[in-house]
Design brief:
The protein has 173 residues and is of the alpha+beta class. It has helices at 19-27, 72-78, 117-123, 144-150; strands spanning 3-7, 13-18, 31-36, 41-42, 47-48, 51-56, 93-97, 112-116. It is built from four helices and eight strands, in the order E-E-H-E-E-E-E-H-E-E-H-H.
């Protein structure tokens, strides 16, 4: 199974799907092929273009309210695989609640950050300012492109022009 990048009608990246699902969307007239493989999809009687990138023909409104579950891999990728407090990328990375759960902090993107084990231990169940630690910027939910980049082991060259920024690059770990 090959993976296919799905773009909104506005060419905004939305998701990744299988080439089978992409073919069905194209066949039903819901999407068009923007980029394709040289190798077609073959059946007993026909041959079809094998999509690499498709674009939906109707614009899909994607509300910001859609919450994706927090995973360590996505969190670490969002924070550049380094501690937000001291900037180290070496050592063991952990998940830290900015407002500790013991103080009512939720496990939401806006309240979790990547911290190295020593910084997480130092902060404990206190607020960053209580231990003279600071965040370079407030945490927020990652852009959908991060999940697209994490969904594939290697981002195909043909996708690069549709994916803004290269803050995740090739997903590791």
């Amino acid at each position: 199974m090959h993976q296919v990048l799905v773009l909104n009608a506005s060419y905004e990246p939305l998701n990744v799907c299988s080439d089978r699902r992409a073919h069905i969307l194209v066949f039903k007239g819901k999407a068009e092929v923007v980029e394709h493989h040289d190798e077609p999809i073959r059946s007993a009687a026909s041959s079809f273009v094998r999509p690499l990138v498709i674009r939906l023909l109707q614009y899909v409104r994607v509300p910001r309210a859609i919450k994706r579950r927090i995973s360590r891999r996505a969190l670490f990728a969002r924070d550049g695989w380094k501690c937000v407090y001291c900037g180290t990328s070496g050592g063991r990375l952990t998940l830290d609640h900015v407002i500790p759960r013991s103080r009512g902090g939720d496990s939401v993107w806006e309240n979790v950050v990547t911290a190295c084990a020593p910084c997480n231990l130092r902060k404990g169940d206190r607020l960053p300012e209580e231990v003279a630690m600071s965040l370079p910027r407030p945490p927020r939910a990652p852009a959908p492109v991060l999940f697209i980049r994490l969904a594939t082991h290697r981002v195909p060259e043909s996708w690069q022009q549709y994916l803004p920024g290269d803050h995740v690059g090739h997903a590791a770990a």
